[in-house]
Design a protein that fits this description.
The complex is a heterodimer of chains A (about 400) and B (about 525).
Chain A (H helix, E strand, L loop, with lengths): L2 H16 L2 H12 L3 E7 L5 H4 L6 H6 L15 E4 L2 E3 L7 H5 L3 E8 L7 H10 L11 H8 L9 E4 L14 E3 L10 H12 L3 H16 L8 H6 L6 H14 L6 E6 L14 H20 L6 E7 L3 E5 L5 E3 L3 E6 L7 E2 L20 E2 H11 L22
Parallel strand pairs in A: 1-7, 1-8, 4-12, 4-13, 5-6, 5-7
Antiparallel strand pairs in A: 2-3, 4-11, 8-11, 9-10
Chain B lengths: L2 H12 L11 H12 L7 H8 L1 H8 L8 H7 L9 H7 L3 H5 L10 H17 L3 H13 L9 H13 L7 H9 L2 H6 L17 H14 L13 H10 L9 H10 L3 E4 L11 E4 L9 E3 L2 E3 L4 H13 L1 H15 L6 H13 L4 H10 L16 H11 L3 E2 L2 H10 L23 H15 L7 E2 L13 H13 L5 H10 L7 H9 L8
Antiparallel strand pairs in B: 1-2, 3-4, 5-6
Helix pairs in contact in B: 2-3, 5-8, 6-10, 8-10, 8-20, 8-21, 11-16, 14-15, 17-18, 18-19, 20-22, 22-25, 23-25
Classes of the chains: A alpha/beta (about 400), B mainly alpha (about 525).
Chain lengths: ~400, ~525
Amino acid sequence: MTRRRFLSLGGLALAGWAAPRWVRAAAAAARGSSKTLVVLFQRGAADGLNIIPPYADPAYRKARPSIRILEPGRPEGALDLEGGFGLHPRLAPLLPLWKEGRFAVVHAAGSPDATRSHFDAQDCMESGTPGRKATQDGWLNRALSASRIPRGPLAAVALAGRTPRTMAGAYPVLAVSSADQLRGGGATEESFESVYEDAVDDLLSGPARDLGRARKAVAGLEKADGAAVEAAGYPKGKLGRDFFEIARLIKADVGLRVGFLEAGGWDHHFNEGSTQGQLARRLDELGGSIAAFYRDLGARGDGVLLLTMTEFGRALEENGNGGTDHGHGSVMTLFGPVKGGKVYGSWPGLGEKALFESRDLAVTTDYRRVVSEILRGHLGLQDTAAVFPGGPHAPLGLL
Amino acid sequence: MSSAAAVLLLASALSASGASAARMTERERAIHALDRLGYGPRPGEVDEVLASGVDAWIARQLRPASIPDAALEAKLRAYRTLSMSAAELYNGYPDKRSRVMGLLGSGGKPAEVAQELASAKVLRAVESERQLQEVMTDFWFNHFNVAAQKNQLKWLVSPYERETIRPRVLGKFRDLLGAVARSPGMLVYLDNFQSTIDARYAPAGAREDIAEMEEKMSSGGLKKGRTKLGLNENYARELMELHTLGVDGGYTQKDVTELARILTGWSLERPNKKNRQKDFAFKFKRRMHDPGAKVLLGVPFAWSGEAEGDKALDLLAAHPATARFIAAKLCRRFVADDPPADLIDRVAARFRATDGDIRATLEALFADPAFFERGFFRAKVKTPLEFTASALRATRADLRDPLKAAKAIGAMGQPLYQCEPPTGWPDRAAPWVNSGALLARMRAAALLFNKKPNAPASADARALLGGADARGAAAVSAYVNAFLGGEIGDRTRAAILARLDHPGMSIEKIAALVIGSPEFQRR
């Protein structure tokens, strides 16, 4: 037995009867280190009112004669959740997670910004500083900086061609479309890395070192083609592939603590449809991907919290093209270690007076409250004042 | 000791800020000028600039009209959309909705407009002799950023750069600001075209008119639901925060609302056969304008319709905070991420003294002793565009597919003309320094030399040796001379030399290592 091992066992034994604070802290840090946060941004304004339909609300039925989701029990009706809310039937693969208490919904959630412009709203939600456009970094990067998560080559990964706004900032983030992008080559990359290793360049040699380490960290991964993704039970397409990537990085223990995914295709001005149509197809992919993700992770999934968010929701009334125009409030969904099986948030109703600017679901839960609670409870931040300056931080009791 | 050296020693001893104020060598000055006023030196260009004199080269760049650029102009003619009006683009490159509804013929796809513009941007950066003009077009476009993916910007983006930005990049700031304020591109991007008199702020007498207009629009409109008129503060806010005063420029939320009220009615017309409107164009819509009294930054505004907006632009352009904000941005672009405060002060003073003359302001900046301080040599990290353009210039690459090059720049994190937020791309190193991005640069460097037929551009490593021995240290020196004006850190050079014995090393790989080196990531 090495001296180090002896000491660590001694420490644990000691912890059993009179744990000093540093031992508990170390143990907590060790537990904490297995926790991962995955954020999925649905770009294009996903329709919370059809994803988690308030089927019992008469205003919902009236406003969406051709595209609404029917009540539970009717043909292709909603899958009942609670309190008059249902699940879009094409999200059926997620129902088991709901029943196990590993899937929660926050309804009428969103940004305090009133804009109905995708780009303004994304910018606002991703910077996390509503009303202040000069902010250069994103809330998730500030959260990483405020956390005790050690900087590692694969601690923060965005599956994207460039660093997404949410992840931009001082904390080192790896932005790649797939871990396989890091593989391959070899001699050429090593040559470059060795040049950087010896170079006197404080700014660039760090990322170059991270790159070398990241490439080594993923070297053991098998190359994953489409067949491997499908074999693991993920649906075809980019979203399934992205969830597969995140799962394999988690399972490979390369130190992934924060993952960021983005999915487009939620801007359904035309043929949004009800249980058939554009939204239904998108939800097939989403539900199948998330279900496969937690199946794939197995017990590891207990430490992996997935949060979905979107820049705003869609107007209550359907438009003339079987779609919906830009609105305001939408839904956020949470998976994994959450108090699931519950719809959170206060429901503002869909009566004319309750609507935002007389047309959209109002926002009653600022997304920053949901995120703040996760950052504190799941990633161990002491407080989130630096992440959302001045923003609401009060927890909803999600964790 | 020679007398020249003694003078140098004395000069540095007298310098207030000591070592950091040391001057660059003449060769470094030439490299620096080519790096900062343009997209980096081509092989041999450092010597050319040295021969003509660095200051003379700068003076010429400040007068781009005097520099012939026919070869580039001939190449740009291949891109038809570059000279088309917004209406021609709108009709010739209809979106899906118009195609489906059969309203417009089946031309190209709207995305082609921004693609051609992006291709042209790469070509211009690499091949234009008017390097400073291209850098300044990039600077001001980025300052007054619009994103091609927002609504009609997919057509408007190209005329916006051509007609609004490009002709004014070295002119008067007030002219540029005014042209942007009236451009269909900015009116759409920051929503001012739909900002109207608002019952919350309008004088009591106007409220009935508002109700009547809402009623009319609701009954006549295609959209379901009630039409509501109201203020859109988007442009007014950015006009002060990003275009003029800066976020700490001393304005309040009340000023934002007042400026938005002043600018109500600054709208646009779309091409329309009924009223014979031929193109997208600025139009002041009197009925949308709030006629009430306003106060902006303490200055009262009596009703004068469209002229109120011009008065507000005059006020903002002449504001001391604007001079300082623009000077700081120019210094950040041309000098360092965190430029010295006294330099910003001097540049801002020149801006104010010349009534916002951009050429005169730049002249002062480039003539300032601080501009050539040694500490700023290669102090800036290149953006993906700067890296790509400088690599293609340094290697005299055959740019076979500019669109592919533009897409590669996008993959490195800078999709051209698609920067979503109104802030434009950041001009600091941190957002661009990322392991994934670095890997992309290394691979782009390798791809440049490996003669793959599908590469966006191809360079001939052997030809670039210029007759030097293809083996060992001589080859490294030849490439350092060609790509970096002969200047590279000793440790980088040693690290490259240490790789020469590795199996599989080739002349192409040595060249790629120099392009991928830390020194080449900087300007």
